[in-house]
Write a structure and sequence with these properties.
Layout: H1 2-10, E1 15-18, E2 23-27, H2 33-39, E3 48-51, H3 54-60, H4 66-69, E4 77-81, E5 84-87, H5 93-102, E6 104-109, H6 126-131, E7 134-135, E8 147-150, E9 157-160
Parallel strand pairs: 1-7, 3-5, 4-8
Antiparallel strand pairs: 1-2, 2-6, 3-6, 4-5, 8-9
Helix pairs in contact: 1-5
Length: 167
């Protein structure tokens, strides 16, 4: 199943992967437009970059400070640093294998814009599931999205409360 997901990503298709919070809709960075199209998401709302580990994220995004990232990651946080959202969730093994194989993916929750966050594959809208190149089923997930933390200013700001414990 993971080989199919890796092949789909490399072919420019979106895939659905389980994370530590909700199901994610993922694509390679150069094909992130497909995420906006599938979700009906406003293009002014950026998607996050997701990696299987901090080292891969730092390698993919020049200028990231690993000592800052390691305070929060891996875990249920999306960090805003240097104008980009980054995430290193505690991925289920199959999803980690897929992400490791491609390095980093653009990711957002696998729902229609404004829709409920999917805890199970069956909760992902059919129009999204049917358009994806692969679906990795990780069973039932917690269903609470990541906590979004803005680290761009002098002090830490919580932009969205979520699965991550208060800082």
């Amino acid at each position: 199943m993971t080989d199919g997901a890796v092949a789909a990503l490399r072919a420019g298709r979106a895939v659905i992967l389980p994370t530590d919070t909700v199901y994610g809709l993922c694509a390679l960075r150069e094909h992130e437009d497909v995420l906006y199209e599938l979700k009906g998401r406003d293009r002014s709302k950026p998607v996050a970059l997701l990696a299987a580990d901090v080292d891969a994220l730092v390698a993919a995004v020049p200028g990231l400070d690993p000592s800052v990232l390691e305070k929060y990651l891996p875990g249920p946080y999306t960090l805003i640093v240097g104008g980009v959202g980054v995430r290193v969730p505690s991925l289920p093994p199959a999803a980690a294998d897929v992400v490791r194989a491609v390095g980093v993916v653009a990711a957002t929750s696998a729902n229609l814009a404004g829709g409920p966050d999917p805890r199970r594959v069956e909760e992902i809208p059919e129009e999204i599931r049917g358009a994806c190149g692969a679906v990795v089923d990780g069973g039932e997930l917690p269903g609470v999205p990541s906590t979004v933390v803005d680290l761009t200013g002098g002090e830490v700001r919580i932009l969205r409360r979520g699965a991550g414990p208060p800082l």
